[in-house]
Design a protein that fits this description.
By secondary structure, the protein is an alpha+beta fold. Helix content is about 30%, strand content about 30%.
């Protein structure tokens, strides 16, 4: 159960509470997964020039072992100068996908951006270079340094009607979903090759008749569909018949579910 679900005061909104909610990864797991697979985000710092106003910057990042975002930034950059004067900042991370961007997952990590301690720089450097090999060209310039966001609080939006707060502690202890790396390939394959199968699954498992179906997210427990119905666009979640740990298991379970849903001759 997510922090937002356990603590109603931290929960902003959700879908109709009268509708039973299928088991899903917690908000903390979903944020941790989202932050791990994305590579570019928007860093908002406190402006020095216009005191108190946020200053947004496009920011490549990697993460450390507890999910803290790491940046390689120059002292000449405006966001670095802002951070050196006031470490308070937020990082907006958004899922890249087709269709309505308001239906995709995103999260805002609020916290302090501080220089990576000297004894941790080597590890930060290794992590950063493993993701951005071309940064070797400037990583050792004297005006560049590694900084890290220490989250204090996190707000997650998983799509329409799915949103809530995640504590820094829950985020830190959460695990990345095992399908995280494979998810983009699974979505691309399902949306290009198996639309009729998803329409069938929506009818059998969610009771929704659809003319079009798009898989928008997948995790170890199930997947989300965006459906075009006679009553407009609708979203639904369908759970796997058993938990999966990799793309091969997901493929086998999906095939099994589609075959079980096909009309009997």
């Amino acid at each position: 159960m997510s922090t937002a679900e356990m603590n109603p005061s931290r929960k902003h909104a959700y879908t109709d509470p009268g509708i039973p909610q299928l088991p899903e990864p917690t908000y903390a797991e979903r944020v941790r997964t989202l932050v791990s697979i994305c590579t570019i985000a928007t860093l908002s710092t406190v402006s020095r020039k216009q005191s108190g106003y946020p200053f947004g910057s496009l920011m490549p990042y990697t993460i450390d072992g507890t999910g803290r975002p790491i940046f390689l930034i120059s002292n000449m950059a405006m966001h670095t100068q802002n951070i050196q004067a006031d470490p308070r900042a937020s990082l907006f991370v958004g899922q890249v996908g087709d269709g309505d961007p308001l239906g995709t997952a995103r999260a805002t990590l609020v916290g302090d951006v501080l220089p990576v301690p000297e004894d941790e720089v080597d590890e930060a450097r290794q992590r950063y270079l493993s993701r951005y090999e071309n940064s070797r060209s400037w990583v050792d310039f004297k005006d560049f340094g590694f900084y890290r966001l220490q989250p204090l609080d996190i707000y997650y939006v998983g799509g329409f009607g799915v949103m809530g707060w995640v504590t820094a502690e829950d985020y830190r202890s959460a695990e990345v979903d095992p399908l995280a790396d494979a998810a983009p390939r699974i979505l691309a394959h399902m949306n290009s090759e198996h639309v009729p199968a998803m329409i069938l699954l929506a009818k059998v498992h969610a009771g929704l008749e659809a003319a079009e179906a798009t898989m928008t997210a997948v995790d170890r427990l199930g997947f989300h569909l965006r459906l075009r119905t006679a009553d407009g666009m609708k979203g639904t979640r369908i759970n796997f018949v058993r938990e999966v740990q990799n793309s091969d298991e997901a493929r086998k379970v999906l095939v099994e579910m589609v075959r079980a849903s096909e009309p009997r001759a």
